[in-house]
Amino acid sequence: MLDGFIRVGAASPMLKVADVDYNISRIISCAKEAADSSCSLLVFPELSITGYTCADLFSQNALLAKAKKGMYEIAEQTKDINTIIVAGLPLVVSDKLYNCACVIYKGDVIGIVPKTNIPNYNEFYEMRHFTPYEDKGLIYIDDEICFGRSVFNCSGLSFAVEICEDLWVPSSPSVDYVKHGAKIICNLSCSDEIIGKARFRRDLVKMQSAKLMAAYIYADSGIGESTQDLVFAGHDLIAENGQLLAESKRFAGGTQDDVIIYSDIDLERLDSDRRRANTYITDVAGDDYINSLTFTADLPDIKPDRKISPTPFVPRSDKDLEARCEDILNMQAAGLLTRLKAINCSKAVIGLSGGLDSTLALIVTIHAFDRLGLGRKGIITVNMPGFGTTSRTRNNAMSLAAEYGCTLKEISISDSVMQHFKDIEHDPDVTDITYENSQARERTQILMDIANQEGGLVIGTGDMSELALGWATYNGDHMSMYGVNCSIPKTLVRYLVSYEAQRTKSISESLSTALADIVDTPVSPELLPPTEDGKISQKTEEQVGPYELHDFFLYYFIRFGFTPSKIYRLALIAFDGKYDSDTIYKWEEVFIRRFFAQQFKRSCVPDGPKVGTVSLSPRGDWRMPTDAKRDLWLEDLKSVKA
Questions:
Q1: Annotated catalytic, 69?
Q2: 164 given a catalytic annotation
Q3: What is the CA radius of gyration of the chain?
Q4: How confident is the model at residue 289 (pLDDT cuts 50, 70, 90)?
Q5: What is the CATH number of domain 318-641?
Q6: What is the pLDDT of residue 314?
Q7: Is 46 annotated in the active site?
Q8: What is the pLDDT of residues 296-341, one digit of tens each?
Q9: Predicted confidence band at 582 (pLDDT cuts at 50, 70, 90)?
Q10: Measured between alpha carbons, how far is 31 from 80 in angstroms, rounded to an integer?
Q11: Which of 100, 102, 146, 164 is flagged as catalytic?
C-alpha cells in the first residue's frame, strides 16, 4: 500500500430471492469488476447469497445447503482475483441458524462472523429464524474455518465485520473490534426504506466512523428483495472518521444493474488520529473472545482517486464556508473580549496597514467591542507609512478606519528609521534585512508606546502561515499583547475578509469595496521601495512561495504527521494543472527548511485563541525543540526524485 491508501467498495448487486445460483453469479461479477478497479476490499449486503426476505424459507434445508455451497463456489470462482470479498449467508452451526458474513480471499474462506443483535420489532422478525450470537470463543466449521467475532489482519490492513442491527444498538460489536486494532468496519445490511431513514442512516454511519476513528463500509440491499411489505433502496455508504467519502444513489439498481461504489481509505490518517487521542484505547486485556485472523494478501498500490482539496483549511461548499467564517470570527472575538474583560481594558491598538492580516485583526476587534458594548473610538488604528508604503494600501487603511468609526492615527516612520540607520551606521541605500527589519521594529515600538499612553492592548495581526515559515520580524510584528490571528492560515484569512466584505455590502458599499480591494491586493510587508509607478514591489509569495502550497504542507505535516514524500504526492493530486512537480518540490523543500529553522520565533509568541485542529502554540499543540535537525525530512522528500 503506497502511502497507506487502500481502495474499498460497497456493492448492491441485482438479486433474486432464494435463487442462490443467480445471486452468487452477480456477486462474482461484481467482485471481478472491483478487482479490475484495484479494489482491495468489497462488501456485499446482508444475506446477499440468498436474499434477506426469504422469511420461512430459511427453515428449508435445501436453501441452507445451497447457500453454504454457494459460499464455496464464490471462493472457487474468485481465486484468481486480488479482492477480499465479504458476503452474507444463513449458516447452521451447532444446530443453530445464524445470520452470517463470510470473508473470502483467493479461493479461501478466511472466517465467518455471525450477527450479534437480532431485531424483532416493527417490521423485523429475525428471531423467528436466527439465533443471536453469544461469544463462545474459538469455533471451527468444516474443520478449518474460524467462526465467531474476529479481526482480520493482512498486509497492514485490519478490518472487522458487523451486520445491520449491530450498528444501531448502543454497544456495537465494532467498538470492541477497533479496540483490537480494526481500522475498517464492514457492515452487511438490509435496511428497508421509510421516510427520513436515509438521513438518519447516513448520519449514523458518519458518526460511528468518527467515534471509532475508523473507516466504515456500509453495503445495503436494493432492488430484487421482496417488496411484499417493504421497499429496499440499496443505500451504500463509505465514511472515514466522520467524513462521508462515497454514497450511492438510492433506488439506483434496475432490472440488469449492479451498483458498486468505491472510495480510497487513508489508513495512515486513521493511525495518526488514533495516536493523537490518548483516550483511544486498544488491545484491551482479557477480551479473548475476539479472534485474530491473519492471512497474506497482495494489496495493490494505488494513486488515490479521491478529492484532495488544495485548501484543506477551507470548507468546500459555499454554505459551509459561510458558517465556518462566522464561527471563526465569533471564536476570535470571544478570545479577545474575554481578555479585555479580564484586565478591565476598554481600548485596543492595531497597526492598520491596509493588508489582509491587519484587516482581519480589525474586524475581530470590531466584533469584540460591539459585543462588549464598547465604543469603536476606543479602537485606535495606527497607519505607519514607511519606505515601501503604497497609496493603495494607505487609502484602504484610512477607509476602513473611517467606515468602522475607529480612531485613526497616521505616523510616518521614515524620519525615525533614518535616524536609527544613522545611529547604527547603516547605509540606507543598502536595502537588506537590516533595512527591512528596522522598519518592522519601529512600528512595533510605536504601537506598544501608544498602548502605554492609552492604557490599551496591542492586537497582534500575524497569522499562522507566517508563524510556520518564520515570516515575521523577531520582536517586530512578531510581538503583540494578544494575537487574534495566531491560528488562522493565510488562505483562510483571505476568505474571512471576503466574508466580511459580503456581509457589510448592504451596510456600507464603500466599506465593502475597500475590503474587496484588500483581498485583491498582493501580500506584502511593504518594506522595500515601490516601483516607479507606485505599485508594490515586494511580493511575499514571490520570495517565500505561494501560501496555498505552504498551507497545504502545513496542514498535513502538523495535523497528521505525514512524511514529506506523501505530502508531495498528495499535492500533485490537489494542485494538478496549477503547479508542476518541480514547483511543488521546490516550495516544499523551502517549507521544511524554514519550518525547522524558525521554531525560535514560535517558542515565544503571545497568547491567542486556537480555532482549528492545527495550531502552533508552544503552550498547547506544538512543542518542538528549537535546535531540532531537519535532515530526516529533507532526505524523505528527496526520495520522490529517486
A1: no
A2: yes
A3: 31
A4: confident
A5: 3.40.50.620
A6: 94
A7: yes
A8: 988 889 999 988 999 999 988 888 899 999 999 999 999 999 999 9
A9: very high
A10: 11
A11: 164
The residue type at 257: D
Structural domain boundaries of the chain? Answer: 2-294, 318-641
Based on the number of CB atoms within 10 Å of its own CB, is 177 exposed (0-12), middle (13-18) or buried (19 or more)? buried
Q: What span, in angstroms and rounded, lies between the C-alpha atoms of 293 and 153?
A: 6
Q: What angle is formed at CA 464 by the lines to CA 349 and CA 473, rounded to 5 degrees?
A: 65
Identify the pLDDT of residue 284: 56
Q: Give the list of residues 6+ apart from residue 422 with CB closer than 8 angstroms, or none.
A: none
What is the per-residue DSSP string for 104-128? EETTEEEEEEE-S----STT--GGG
Catalytic residue among 46, 225, 240, 247: 46
**Helical (H) or strand (E) element with 139:** strand 139-141
- Please tell me the predicted confidence (pLDDT) of residue 418: 97
Q: Are the beta carbons of 88 and 48 closer than 8 angstroms?
A: yes
Mean pLDDT of the chain: 94
CATH of 2-294, one of 3.30.450.40, 3.40.50.2300, 3.60.110.10, 3.20.20.70: 3.60.110.10
Catalytic residue among 66, 115, 490, 601: 115
Q: Which one-letter DSSP state was computed for residue 248?
A: P
Phi, psi of 593, rounded to the nearest 5 degrees: -60, -45
Mean pLDDT of 144-166: 94
49-75 residue pLDDT tens: 999 999 999 999 999 999 999 999 999
